[in-house]
Every structure is written in structure tokens, then in C-alpha cells.
């Protein structure tokens, strides 16, 4: 008798081959048979009329603090994710000297928009070194597997103190010490090293992330740690990836190409289309492809939808710095909306200017051609240009800012506005589609656990299935087999997790059973469920009949079962037969 049998589902096995109808048997957390299974199972799931996929692997998350308090790792767990990699973008919480805790919290708060009060209350600092951090993570059971990378910012601050935090160059001794600690982290089980060089990544103090201006000597030395260990991925957000203007748009990929070839390790870097150079991504993709001939292994990390913010009264909006609005900002959202509908207050707020400059003012230009109302019935991440508030204003003869005000204040709308920042220059997702199809590109950039008050891209795994494989109406779709592969075997293979991502005997039994016809994203909602009452956007989905981790059913119809089979993943994993 098998531990678990999933019967009669349509299998999209992660390899990209055509789907087939089959049973899946599981024993001791491993897939033992795929095909017709005549035996019985202690537990059986009827997957007739549903699809069965490997569990999704999200390689770009920021759960570094949340792993301390949340065994579910929401919102990723609601979207079929069974493995995550954290420690991206050079930020994390280890190594950490006792007098640097507040500074590390401020770094994460500034770069990744995670409420500092929530991090301070939620994290139990049981470590100083990176291996001790992994030990602490390992002690907490959870619903899914987690893996970590060594973050450059924390490493610099640990070794160099204020000099490292201020982006001063390291001495020879500093660099030797950083390399030794990076190797210590890799030997303890880190899956790679991460850094950030974009000028848009700033600590809560406004200072750039440590490592932003690191010279090649430092980068190549730390990359060489991975080469000497023969394992690990070098992850970064390069200069220009945040949409900032750069003098040499090819300068970053030039050194990345040389680094990968020199150390023999893969380099993955964030890549978006940006309005300052709308076609530059094509050249970067071509260089990544050409680099293979030189022995380099570059993987542009691309998104499944535009990088954009969700504007609402609960997060931030065009009026939150205006004097008359600030006088009612303390009210609960329903009372605030009611107050905003008062004609006299409406006139005052619309006639005012912000009291002081807002670092996020770029979200709210006088023109609103990139601001789209989000439907209460479900989000649209590829809205047509004629759905923007500017377009609506032209058609109706109203001021677009007044339309936004009324939309936010109304009790009959979703009250949420989608503002794409990157990846939507021409009001189409065709560039993202081309990126996804590129042979070197890997799907990532969900930022799950981060940007709590403005972004909720942890739901990308679901929108990949619904938008790209089923619902897209403004361009070509992508085959479901391909979409599943992009979220399973490909990211798992890049990070050396070759024991998962395929529905084949001998592979880890991480699976999803999905009612594909019913699969749907819910609208985002703003909740205050973080430690210290911190607020964040969350987004759930309908249609996940079951999610299974290591052979245990962790979710049924979107609700947790109480099973906590997830563990810390230390180092790479071989597949069946040592592959």
C-alpha cells in the first residue's frame, strides 16, 4: 500500500513534454510510480478533471525575517509554491553582530519595504554567524522548503562595520575575511551569494546598499569563493535594473560575463524592460546567449508580469501628503472614505499640494497614463492603454486626479489602482513574453515577503498559469507545459535542486493538484497581520485543490491542513541516480 496516490489527473510533469493522464504514487516523501497504479493508497486524491504539476520553486524571495514567525510563509503558500530561495539582492540578517540588528532591520525595511517594527518584534535573534542563522531557520517547522544565500550587505557590515555600510572599499584583510565567511556560509548550506548594484535600493536612511559600488576586485573575489567551492549561484540586481539611467548600459553584463567564465558558476541578474531604454533588454538577452560560447553561464532573471505597485488608501496614494487628507488619515478606511466623499473636503484636498517631497513621488505624476483601476472581480495585469485614468479623463472631460480621488473614496469599487513601473512601456506584455521564451532566462523576481505595502507579486505563479496559458486576449499565449516548466524544473535546476521539479519516480513528492478551469486570482487586500500590527498586501487564489510537500498534503482547497513538512535545504541536491 502506498502512502499517497493521486488518481486520474492530467500530468504536466515539469519537463515541458506534452501532458498525459496518469496516476502518481508517493512513498516516504518521494514519487515512486507514475502511470497506472493498481495498488491502493493510505490517502488518495481524485484528480479527475484536474491538472497535476510539480510544486513551484520561487528563487527570488525575501522571507529572511518572516521565517522566524510564520510557518506558512504567506502569501507564497497560497500559490502552489513548495520551495523558496531567500537572501536575494544582498540583504539579509546574517552574519549579524549584536550591535547591528537595528541597522540590518533598517536596511531590509528600506530596500524591501518590510515594516521595521514587524521585523524587530518578529525576529528572534538566535545567531551571529551565517551557519548559526541556518541552524535557527532549520529548527522551525513550516509548510514548505526554504533555502538561503549569503547576502553581501550583511557580510560587508559584519566585517567592516561602518566602513562597509558606507560602501568604502575593503582592505586586503577585509576582503580575505569576507571571502572566508562567504565560504563558511556556502559550506553550511547556502545556495549562493547575492549583491545589489541598482541605485534604487536604499536603506531606510537613504544610503545605498553596501556593495552597490563594489569594485571588480571585490566582486571577483567573492565570486571566486563559489568557484573554489564548486557550487552556488551568484545573484545580483545590476545597475540600471531599477529603471535608473546609466551611462554604460552594457557595462554590468560585461563584467558578469567575465566573472561567470572565470569562476565557472552561473550568474543570475534581474532584467526588466524600462522606459529609459525600452529595447535594451534585447541586447542583454543576446549577450547572455552569446556568452555560453565563452564558457559563461548567464541567466537573466525575468518577471511573469509588469513590476508595478498597488495604490490604495491603505498603502500610499497621490493625496497622502496633502494637509487636509493628513487630518483624516488616522481614521479607519471606511470612515476615511466616507469623509473623503464630503464635497467641501474633496475640493480642499484636490486643490492642495503635498506638504513635503515624497521619495515615491514618481508614482504620482500629473499625468496618469500608467494608472489603471483594478476590478473588484479580479486583477488585470495587461490592461489596455484606453483603460487608464488619463484615457478615461479624456473620454469624460474630467480631471484624471479627480477620477482617482473618487475611485479611492468610493465604497463601490475595489479601491485599488495598478501602476506598472517596469515592463510595460508599450502597454503590452509582448516584451515579457519574449523574455520568458529566451533559452537563458529564468523566471523570478516575485519578491515574495517584500514590498509589503505596495507590491504583491508573490501571486505570480498563479497569474503565470491563468494569464499566459489560459486567459490572455491581447496577444499570443504560452503552452501550459512551458509555463509549468518555467516554474518547476528550470529554477530548481539553476539552483542545484535536482531532486525536485519533475513528476517522475525518485523525485521529491512536491506537487499541486489544480482545478485549472476554476483557477483564479482574487483581488489584493490590505491586512494588518504582521508582528506589531504591521500592514501588508496579500492576494489569495481559488482553484488549488491540494498542495503537497514531501508527500504530505499541506493545503486543501486553499486552506492549511496543519501539516508542516517543510525544511531548510542545505546545499545542492542530486536527482535520482545521482543526476
How much helicity do the residues have?
25-40%
Percent range for β-strand residues: 15-25%
The unreliable regions are none
Number of helices: 18
Task: Please describe what this structure looks like.
This is Amidohydrolase family protein. Keywords: Hydrolase. InterPro entries: Amidohydro_3, Metal-dep_hydrolase_composite, Metal_Hydrolase, Metallo-dep_Hydrolases_sf. This protein is of the alpha/beta class. Among the domains are: 248 residues, Metal-dependent hydrolases (TIM Barrel); 111 residues, no CATH class. The protein contains 18 helices and 25 strands. Strands 1, 2, 3, 4, 5, 18, 23, 24 and 25 form a nine-stranded mixed beta sheet that branches. Helix 7 packs parallel to helix 8 and helix 13 crosses helix 14. The radius of gyration is 24 Å and the shape is globular.
Amino acid at each position: 500500500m502506498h502512502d499517497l496516490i493521486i488518481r486520474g489527473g492530467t500530468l504536466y510533469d515539469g519537463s515541458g513534454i506534452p501532458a498525459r493522464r496518469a496516476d502518481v504514487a508517493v512513498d516516504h516523501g518521494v514519487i515512486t510510480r507514475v502511470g497506472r497504479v493498481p495498488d491502493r493508497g493510505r490517502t488518495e486524491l481524485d484528480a479527475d478533471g484536474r491538472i497535476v504539476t510539480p510544486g513551484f520553486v520561487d528563487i527570488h524571495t525575501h522571507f529572511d525575517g518572516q521565517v522566524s514567525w510564520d510557518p506558512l510563509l504567506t502569501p507564497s503558500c497560497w500559490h502552489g509554491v513548495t520551495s523558496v530561495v531567500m537572501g536575494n539582492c544582498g540583504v539579509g540578517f546574517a552574519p549579524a553582530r549584536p550591535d547591528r540588528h537595528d541597522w540590518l532591520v533598517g536596511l531590509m525595511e528600506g530596500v524591501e519595504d518590510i515594516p521595521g517594527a514587524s521585523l524587530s518584534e518578529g525576529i528572534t535573534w538566535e545567531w551571529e554567524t551565517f551557519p548559526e542563522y541556518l541552524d535557527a531557520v532549520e529548527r522551525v517547522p513550516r509548510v514548505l522548503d526554504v533555502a538561503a544565500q549569503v547576502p553581501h550587505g550583511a557580510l560587508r557590515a559584519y566585517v567592516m562595520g561602518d566602513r562597509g555600510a558606507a560602501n568604502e572599499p575593503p582592505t586586503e584583510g577585509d576582503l580575505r575575511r569576507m571571502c572566508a565567511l562567504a565560504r563558511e556560509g556556502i559550506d553550511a548550506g547556502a545556495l549562493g551569494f547575492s549583491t545589489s548594484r541598482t541605485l534604487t535600493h536604499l536603506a531606510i536612511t537613504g544610503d545605498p546598499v553596501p556593495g552597490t559600488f563594489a569594485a571588480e576586485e571585490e566582486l571577483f573575489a567573492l565570486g571566486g569563493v563559489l568557484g573554489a567551492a564548486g557550487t552556488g549561484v551568484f545573484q545580483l540586481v545590476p545597475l540600471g535594473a531599477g529603471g535608473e539611467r546609466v551611462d554604460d548600459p552594457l557595462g554590468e553584463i560585461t563584467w558578469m560575463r567575465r566573472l561567470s567564465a572565470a569562476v565557472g558558476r552561473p550568474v543570475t541578474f534581474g532584467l526588466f524592460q524600462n522606459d529609459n531604454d525600452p529595447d535594451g533588454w534585447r541586447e542583454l538577452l543576446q549577450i547572455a546567449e552569446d556568452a555560453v560560447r565563452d564558457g559563461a553561464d548567464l541567466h537573466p532573471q525575468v518577471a511573469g508580469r509588469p513590476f508595478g505597485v498597488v495604490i490604495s488608501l491603505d498603502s500610499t496614494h497621490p493625496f497622502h501628503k496633502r494637509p487636509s487628507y493628513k487630518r483624516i488619515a488616522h481614521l479607519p478606511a471606511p470612515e476615511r472614505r466616507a469623509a473623503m466623499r464630503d464635497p467641501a473636503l474633496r475640493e480642499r484636498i484636490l486643490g492642495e499640494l503635498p506638504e513635503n517631497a515624497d521619495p515615491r513621488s514618481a508614482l504620482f505624476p500629473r499625468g496618469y497614463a500608467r494608472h489603471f483601476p483594478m476590478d473588484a472581480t479580479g486583477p488585470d495585469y495587461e490592461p489596455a492603454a484606453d483603460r487608464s485614468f488619463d484615457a478615461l479623463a479624456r473620454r469624460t472631460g474630467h480631471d484624471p486626479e479627480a477620477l482617482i480621488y473618487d475611485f479611492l473614496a468610493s465604497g463601490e469599487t475595489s479601491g485599488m489602482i495598478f501602476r506598472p513601473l517596469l515592463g510595460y512601456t508599450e502597454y503590452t506584455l509582448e516584451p515579457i513574453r519574449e523574455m520568458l521564451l529566451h533559452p537563458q532566462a529564468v523566471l523570478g523576481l516575485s519578491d515574495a515577503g517584500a514590498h509589503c505595502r505596495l507590491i504583491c507579486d508573490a501571486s505570480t505563479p498563479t497569474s503565470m498559469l491563468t494569464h499566459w496559458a489560459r486567459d490572455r486576449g491581447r496577444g499570443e499565449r504560452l503552452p501550459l507545459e512551458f509555463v509549468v516548466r518555467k516554474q518547476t524544473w528550470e529554477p530548481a535546476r539553476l539552483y542545484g535542486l535536482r531532486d525536485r521539479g519533475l513528476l517522475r519516480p525518485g523525485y521529491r513528492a512536491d506537487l499541486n493538484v489544480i482545478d485549472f478551469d476554476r483557477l483564479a486570482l482574487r483581488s489584493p487586500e490590505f491586512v494588518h497581520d504582521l508582528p506589531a500590527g504591521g500592514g501588508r498586501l496579500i492576494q489569495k487564489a481559488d482553484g488549488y485543490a491540494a498542495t503537497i510537500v514531501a508527500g504530505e498534503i499541506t493545503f486543501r482547497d486553499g486552506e492549511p491542513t496543519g501539516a508542516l513538512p517543510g525544511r531548510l535545504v542545505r546545499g545542492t541536491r542530486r536527482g535520482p541516480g545521482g543526476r
